[in-house]
Amino acid sequence: LAPSNIRAIAPYQPGKPITELAREMGLKPESIVKLASNENPLGVSPKAYEAMQDALEDIARYPDGNSFALRDCVCRKFKLQPDQLVFGNGSNDILELAARAFLTPGTEAVYAQHAFAVYALVTQATGATGISVPAKDFGHDLDAMLAAVTDKTRIVFIANPNNPTGTLIGKQALRHFLASVPKHALVVLDEAYDEYLAADIKSEALSWLDEFDNLLISRTLSKAYGLAGLRVGFGVTSPAIADLMNRVRQPFNVNSVAQAAAVAALQDDEFVERSYALNQAGMLQITQGLAKLGLGYIPSYGNFVSFHVSNAAEVYQQLLKSGVIVRPVAAYEMPDYLRVSIGLHSENARFLEVLEQILQARS
Ligand code: PMP
């Protein structure tokens, strides 16, 4: 019954849940190390946890459909106006709202090879045509992407940093690109991992919104803010684009517990700083460990790193058997790579230890 564009969609493959692996392998859930979904290994900010518990008192009521308190908090923190914002059930929701507002059959969306999978998914769901532009050194080839923009292009998706490659586009190159994209195309700039960037390379794109009224910046509370399970993200754009996206948004897409937790999490700078510092140290631990094992990796600006290993699918299964969940990235045209998220020091050590055993058993 479904149209061909829907039947052609390759389902998104999430990281294997801990409970599922525990059941399959007869392992204790607490013995499993999950480094598969770029989550925050520190868990949740205690302040957000408290706010969540308070919000539970009111769950018989509908949430605030306009996320007033959260909107106010985001406006203050990032110096924005309320009408520039759209809130989503995770930032995936923001990506989908953009697709639903701007794509129709006959139009095109441009994204990079190895870019975050959801861009292709939301594009295909609208019946529009997805144009995947070959990557350069695993990163976005902005010149080629610009050349791929046609009269039919309505969205250009850019992930900065990108997942699963971890590559980052420099500020100047990005700004030049934004200035070159024709105004009939919306640039969706996905900054899910911005909090993991060092101060000198952090995005400045929020301050460019006055200049580019075809720019939508997407942010999430799933990563450094530690709220992946609650599903909160937001888009920042021109009031005209925010208005269009809000028209296709479900009225209560962000639940009340998530809104309350997000306000508290956004105010807990200390937690985000700790998350950043842990990630810096863990990235060094894992990349040094991979190098010691003789494995190449793609230098990453996120809270994960993709490394090269022959027979990656088999290594993934062997890691699973030992209770370590990482992420295969074959669906991203990277069949010889696995992606590992940066965890706690002990989790990273366990991953490296099990990986070493697997590689030793091979030789
Ligand atoms: N964008 C990128 C680049 C991501 O890696 C992710 C999470 N995997 C998301 C968006 C979506 O995250 P969420 O829906 O949890 O905000």
Automatic annotation (TrEMBL):
Similarity comment: Belongs to the class-II pyridoxal-phosphate-dependent aminotransferase family. Histidinol-phosphate aminotransferase subfamily.
Keywords, comma-separated and alphabetical: Amino-acid biosynthesis, Aminotransferase, Histidine biosynthesis, Pyridoxal phosphate, Transferase
Subunit structure: Homodimer.
Protein name: Histidinol-phosphate aminotransferase
Organism: Methylobacillus methanolivorans
Superkingdom per UniProt: Bacteria
GO molecular function, one term: histidinol-phosphate transaminase activity
EC number annotated for this UniProt entry: 2.6.1.9
UniProt-listed SUPFAM superfamilies: PLP-dependent transferases
N6-(pyridoxal phosphate)lysine PTM positions: 223
Biological pathway: Amino-acid biosynthesis; L-histidine biosynthesis; L-histidine from 5-phospho-alpha-D-ribose 1-diphosphate: step 7/9
Domain Aminotransferase class I/classII large: from-to ranges: 32-351
Membrane-spanning ranges: none
Cofactor: pyridoxal 5'-phosphate
Catalysed transformations (reactions): L-histidinol phosphate + 2-oxoglutarate = 3-(imidazol-4-yl)-2-oxopropyl phosphate + L-glutamate
InterPro entries: Aminotrans_II_pyridoxalP_BS, Aminotransferase_I/II_large, HisP_aminotrans, HistidinolP_aminotransfase, PyrdxlP-dep_Trfase, PyrdxlP-dep_Trfase_major, PyrdxlP-dep_Trfase_small
A Pfam short name: Aminotran_1_2
Record-linked PANTHER family: HISTIDINOL-PHOSPHATE AMINOTRANSFERASE, HISTIDINOL-PHOSPHATE AMINOTRANSFERASE 2
